[in-house]
Write a structure and sequence with these properties.
The structure holds three protein chains of three kinds.
Chain A (H helix, E strand, L loop, with lengths): L7 E6 L4 E6 L2 H7 L2 H12 L13 E4 L14 E6 L6 E6 L3 H8 L1 E7 L6 E6 L2 E6 L8 H12 L4 E4 L2 H4 L7 E3 L3 E3 L4 H7 L2 E7 L9 H16 L4 H7 L4 H7 L21 H8 E5 L9 E6 L7 E4 L3 H6 L9 H14 L3 H16 L18 H12 L5 H4 L3 H8 L9 E2 L2 E2 L9 H9 L12 H7 L7 H18 L3 H6 L4 H12 L5 H23 L12 H4 L14 H15 L9 H6 L3 H9 L25
Parallel strand pairs in A: 1-6, 7-12
Antiparallel strand pairs in A: 1-2, 3-4, 3-6, 4-5, 7-8, 9-10, 9-12, 10-11, 13-14, 14-15, 16-17
Chain B lengths: L4 H6 L1 H4 L6 H5 L2 E5 L3 H13 L3 E5 L24 H12 L4 E5 L8 H5 L4 E4 L4 H14 L3 E7 L2 E7 L26 H19 L8 E6 L4 E6 L13
Parallel strand pairs in B: 1-2, 1-4, 2-3, 4-5
Antiparallel strand pairs in B: 5-6, 6-7, 7-8
Chain C lengths: L1 E6 L4 H4 L7 E5 L6 H7 L9 E4 L2 E3 L10 E5 L6
Classes of the chains: A alpha+beta, B alpha/beta, C alpha+beta.
Chain lengths: 639, 242, 79
């Protein structure tokens, strides 16, 4: 193939152990662009609507995307996808590192795992050799420890992705870890791997990838490299990685503190980027083809505990497991980061769930008796260590929290769902939306629950007015169409999005690689198509009008920010309802949040409209018709 | 069509009931309009009996005040769509029944579409106006309408199949006074729902003695069952042949 | 002439039975409809949807004969 694809797709039936090879369906990639898009289509087509996400009918997909591994900077991402056990809808998560490119060099664009293995296995790939190997000796071993062992056993040059005991035990927010600290964290992909008894994927390959027009690609990429090397943003990214943003978020009153009670953390100076550099940093780490090296390889030194090594804490973990838990020492935050990484838990949901537990304990809804004689207090590393042990092994009430804060709140009662800071079952990222209504709307409408990576609007909220909801819906829709470009083509948004490389230039690189000759507008339409398909899939699985799933937890509108620069600010229920009305109108969906036939047929998703109609959830026709362009173009500072 | 082995086991205790015809039940399509007190019970028993296809229509969501009588639902159902909760519950009772869940109220605009392809219409409603819509559909489609209604300690059941019989409007005036909150203890729709399910099953299987042309008046306080005849009204606005 | 009105449990209190638990003996004139008789004895006819007698359903415009038993039924609309 001369289009950036390696050429082969693998189907691994874990129940029977059978491995089949197929030529990669390049029409599928052309229409759905790879990565998150192909995952969305395959999940929609192949998983029965009532399949248990942790059962044999769920499929688990590893997808590499057209651009990764292909002579460009930061073409490093791998996408994982399956029905998320957290949200019961389409789920996907990506990670950097080196796995994706290596998979392509071995000759594979996609691996589709089906069924459940009778015993623990890992997938071994070495160019043409593809085997399921026994993983009994690795089962129960921590994610990071397992990668180390596998590298010893197989070879240092293997790229390895693993799950930890949390994924093995079915903690719903388990993640997949790779390269000693990169994660595909969100939507519980690690739990799906664990349910299939798939402990790891190990890949080595050394073939070439062919692209459509190598000369033009090289010329364009060289120019981008020269430009970005000297870009003023490059140095802070290289020095701090995303930990740079901790101070910024705090100063701008969006940093969550104490389970999103407030948005200004008094002790931010104890856990910010400078603390990380000064106390924990060993070296910088980069992903495939990237010299932004935003990764920070660190150690956590805590008295009375072994010294541990990890990558992080990056922004999200410093927020969700730092200020959100009341931690007052960067080493403690790093230690928590390491614990969650080795257990194989998403730090964002892990932090959210732990913060929720801390508030429940503070209010007396859970007690020492429930916690095996321990407490779960703000800022206590020992408490967190014990709590995570209970959760990862689903011991006692640990089982409640292993399902995420939404399910835990259902069990705990006492109105605790008010401060279970999640949407659709997935916990919020490290930004509070009460003084950034576009961000709140992003959380509410993201297809995979409250994840910032589907659209991030804080700078937009600042530019357009933090207390206004004017125009926010349109902007969120537009940004929701931008992000899939990175997730389908499997390139890193930090390099390609933060250094003034225009979307048109990214499309140009894509065209040199794939030969598709598409425009930026077509790329946006593909994003819109993917977005609508996953919405339809969600409604088909969850069987209710879309709107009921799009509300945030009550803290978002009932509790004004109590302290800091954002004191007194907050979003009202009227604004939330209005934002939803505006959003659905902008999307061409009906006021119930259901996609209409008109918009679906415009995107070539007639079959999805038919399926929704059969179950009574097709959107009612909109008087006046749907907008011709959904998501007017907006040029924010960073996209 | 025949019965599978698992169906023969499932329906073992009813296959030898005099006049029973399981295959006829299996090919039947029934719509239940309203899955509240009456609909909960009739749908449960029709599902248990092995009706082929059940279409449920109700735009409501479960509330706490439903749980004294709408026995399909539970605490966890509160806030959720009735037809979806019903579908899950009924499917777990008998996966052989094909259940369609339509989260909408029936009105004069959608009545044709909703009742398309159904052999019988079963009443699960809680107001007079909608019952007249069902009645109109029954007259139009010439399909049987199994009427049921409850209030306090009393309940009515009827089987209307014009032109062979009277219709609802032959005896019920259109302008009857409506109380604000109709008192309904669970036991009343419990009884009436089962009578309705019984009439459905008898009609489908061709059992001759049904409530056709008659009304069952059940008084649970006095413990009386009056079965009275309804004559066609030659001036009926619905079913009188013009 | 005399007729006997009976009521189901939902109308019984309003009927004020006097002969037995359910029945009230009414003296009335020939040729009057049920609707008129109800109005005469102070029962709002809107509270009665239909009646039945000798096993047959009748409307409120029915004219009873001497000695008939008439059962009154209220509008019943719940479900």
């Amino acid at each position: 193939m001369n289009n950036g694809l390696a050429g082969t797709t693998l189907r691994v039936n874990l129940t029977t152990g059978e491995i089949k090879r197929f030529p990669t369906d390049d029409k599928l990639f052309r229409r759905w662009h790879g990565g998150r898009g192909v995952i969305a289509k395959l999940l929609y087509d192949e998983v029965p609507r009532d399949a248990d996400p942790l059962g044999p009918e769920n499929i688990f997909i590893v997808n590499v995307g057209i651009m990764s591994g292909c002579y460009i900077p930061s073409g490093s991402k791998t996408e994982f996808g399956s029905i998320s056990p957290l949200t019961n809808g389409h789920g996907d998560s990506n990670m950097g590192g080196h796995l994706g490119p290596m998979l392509k060099f071995a000759g594979y664009d996609m691996i589709i795992f089906t069924g459940i293995s009778p015993k623990p296995v890992f997938l071994y790939i070495d160019n043409d050799t593809v085997e399921l190997r026994d993983a009994a000796k690795y089962w129960g071993v921590g994610s990071l420890d397992c990668e180390e062992q596998l590298k010893k056993d197989l070879g240092e040059d293997f790229e390895i992705a693993t799950i930890g005991p949390a994924g093995e035990n079915g903690v719903l927010f388990s993640c997949i870890t790779h390269d000693f600290g990169r994660q595909a964290g969100r939507t519980g992909q690690g739990a799906v791997m664990g349910s299939k008894k798939l402990k790891a994927i190990a890949v080595r390959g050394n073939r070439s990838i062919h692209v459509h027009d190598l000369e033009s690609l090289k010329k364009q990429v060289n120019e981008i490299i020269q430009r970005t090397k000297i870009h003023p943003n490059m140095e802070p990214w290289q020095k701090y990685g995303t930990s740079f943003f901790i101070r910024w978020s705090n100063d701008n009153a969006v940093l969550p503190a104490y389970n999103f009670k407030t948005t200004y953390y008094e002790d931010v100076g104890k856990i910010d980027g400078d603390q990380l550099i000064e106390h924990c940093l060993i070296t910088h780490k980069a992903c495939f083809g990237c010299w932004m090296n935003c990764g920070k390889y660190t150690k956590a030194v805590v008295e009375g505990k072994p010294v541990v090594h990890l990558e992080g804490p990056e922004y999200e973990t410093a927020a969700t497991c730092g200020s959100n838990l009341g931690m007052k020492d960067i080493n403690h935050v790093a230690y928590i980061n390491w614990m969650m990484d080795n257990l194989g838990m998403d730090t964002m949901s892990g932090g959210g769930v732990t913060a929720f537990a801390m508030e429940c304990f503070e209010k007396g809804f859970i007690t020492k008796e429930d916690l095996e004689g321990y407490t779960i207090k703000w800022g206590s590393l020992d408490d967190v260590e014990h709590f995570l042990d209970m959760v990862s092994h689903k011991r006692g009430i640990g089982e409640w929290f292993a399902g995420g804060s939404k399910r835990a709140a259902e069990k705990i009662g006492h109105g605790s769902e008010k401060f279970a800071m999640q949407v659709k079952g997935q916990e919020m990222s490290g930004y509070d939306g009460r003084w950034a209504p576009g961000m709140l709307l992003s959380y509410m409408t993201a297809d995979i629950g409250a994840h910032h990576n589907r659209s991030w609007t804080i700078t937009v909220d600042m530019a357009e007015g933090r207390e206004s909801i004017e125009g926010r819906a349109n902007i969120v829709v537009y940004l929701q169409h931008i992000r899939p470009l990175f997730d389908t083509w499997c390139i890193c948004r930090l390099f390609w999005g933060e250094l003034d490389i225009s979307p048109e230039e990214i499309v140009e690189s894509l065209n040199h690689i794939s030969g598709w000759g598409i425009t930026f507008d077509e790329a946006l339409r593909t994003s819109e198509m993917i977005w609508n398909l996953t919405r339809c899939h969600y409604l088909e699985r969850n069987r209710d009008i879309g709107r009921v799933f799009d509300y945030p937890p009550a803290r978002s509108w009932e509790d004004k920010i109590p302290s800091g620069p954002g004191k007194g600010k907050g979003v009202t229920m009227e604004q939330i309802e209005q934002m939803l009305d505006d959003y659905y109108e902008a999307r061409g969906w009906d006021n119930n949040g259901n996609p209409t036939r008109e918009v679906l047929e415009d995107l070539g998703l007639d079959f999805a409209a038919d399926n929704l109609e059969k179950i009574g959830f097709l959107g009612k026709p909109i008087p006046g018709g749907v907008p011709p362009v959904r998501g007017e173009k907006y040029k924010p500072k960073a996209f | 069509m025949g019965l599978s082995d698992s169906e023969k086991i499932r329906y073992f205790r009813q296959l030898n009931v005099r006049g029973w015809n399981q295959e006829k039940l299996k090919s039947a399509k029934v719509i239940i309009v309203g899955v509240g007190g009456l609909g909960s019970v009739s749908s449960l028993y029709l599902t248990a009996a092995g009706i082929g296809k059940l279409r449920l229509c109700d735009g409501d969501r479960v509330q706490h005040t439903d749980l004294n009588r709408q026995i399909l639902y539970s605490e966890e159902s509160v806030g959720r769509l009735k037809v979806e909760e019903a579908r899950k519950r009924l499917a777990s009772l008998n996966p052989n029944v094909e259940i369609e869940a339509i989260p909408e109220f029936m009105d004069s605009q959608n009545a044709d579409e909703m009742t398309k392809g159904c052999d019988l219409i079963v009443d699960g409603l809680d107001n007079i106006e909608s019952r007249f819509i069902l009645n109109k559909q029954s007259v139009k489609m010439k399909k049987p309408y199994i009427y049921g209604a409850v209030q306090g300690w009393e309940g009515f059941v009827g089987l209307f199949h014009p032109p062979n019989s009277a219709c609802l409007a032959c005896f019920l005036p259109q302008d009857t006074q409506k109380p604000d909150e109709i008192p309904v203890p669970g036991i009343l729709p419990g009884m009436i729902g089962i009578f309705q399910a019984t009439e459905v099953l008898k009609f489908i299987m061709g059992v001759e003695e049904t409530l056709l042309k008659r009304l069952l008046v059940y008084d649970s306080q006095n413990l009386t069952f009056d079965i009275v005849e309804i004559e066609k009204n030659p001036n009926c606005p619905y079913c009188a042949v013009s | 002439m005399v007729i006997y009105l009976k009521a189901g449990s939902e109308l019984r209190e309003r009927l004020k039975p006097d002969i037995d638990y359910y029945t009230r003996r009414i003296k009335t004139e020939e040729g009057k409809t049920i609707r008129e008789i109800l109005a005469d004895i102070g029962i709002n006819p809107a509270l009665v949807a239909f009646v039945y007698t000798s096993g047959k359903v009748k409307g409120l415009q029915y004219i009873p004969s001497d000695g008939q038993n008439i059962t009154l039924q209220p509008p019943v609309a719940g479900g």
